[in-house]
Design a protein that fits this description.
alpha+beta; conserved putative lor/sdh protein from methanococcus maripaludis s2 fold; Elongation Factor Tu (Ef-tu), domain 3; OB fold (Dihydrolipoamide Acetyltransferase, E2P); 20 strands; 29% helix; elongated
Amino acid sequence: MRQARLITLVGRVSPVLAAAVSTSCSKPTHYAPPPPVVAVMQVHPERVAETIEFAGEVEAVRRVEVRSPVAGVIVAQPIPEGGQVAAGDVLFRIDPTTYAAVLRGAEARLAEAQARLDNATRTLARLKPLLAEHAVAQKDVDDAMAEEAGARAAVDDAKASVDRARKDLNDATIKAEISGRVGKANLVLGARVTGPAELLTTIDVLDPVRVTFRPSTQQVLAWRRDPRATQALRAGGSARVEIVMPDGVVYPEAGKLDFVAPVVDSATGTQEFRAEVANRQRLLVPGQFVRVRLEGLVRDSALLVPQRAVVQSLGRQSVYVLGAGDTVHSRDVHATAWIGQRWLIDSGLVAGDRVIVDGVQKVRPGSVAKPALAPATAPAP
């Protein structure tokens, strides 16, 4: 009897238990995770020494093109390509045979004209006294005077021909006008030079050299609005120009600005700046691309954030900031230069913004984060 009641009771309770279990499985309890903790810093304006970097190109302080004033075959090239020359050294010799012959012919014609002039002068000297004695006609004296004048003109013309012929002969020996390094020879021994239209080689003065760079018009405009920057960045100003070699090594000699273009290049929208740099070891070569750092500038009210706070992706720079209610927002910024361990922010932030320094990988725009004070970043030295 008791066994039958127990079976009946179990049969009645089982549906209730099943329903309870089913209800508990179909409606689980969800607990929202706490907002992630992120390190935050509040940006404040600072006065900092600014270093700005540009792409630059090395140029010779002076370059001379070597051309031949005369035509002919190159018979000698005493200075090899890439060699050092002093002013007056012979670079090329053009076959002088033709020019020497022309000079001899011109000198012979000068001698003939001089002999004619001497004879005309003697004849005139004999006739003039006879005219006073009426021993000769006036026409004879006039003819003698005309002959003497014509002979003198012929001498002058012959002298000019000699000068031209001598110059052509001298020009067949092509000498260096300045001291420097010889470039590549465009014509070799045995080649025929047709005249000054053909470039033979170049001579570059390599100590010092010039380094040119081109800030944008926006950058130049910002400098012009700052009187201290304007003074520092004029030709001969206090700005220091540091060169970074292609391998990342800082060049040991600093330069000074010696030229600032007065106009903007309409093709590029930039303005040319040029610095002169000593090059005693010849490490800087014309045509070489380097990085140029401008130092000696001071910026007031600069906003700086640690480098790790700036997210760079597909040419875009951004930071995460905390807004009202600690909501995360993405903010596009323009980071222009590194100052110590920090980025200099040109636009995109305002004083008082709370920037996420650490933990950016934990957040996304629109989410909520729990701010914690970021460790202090050492200022730029």
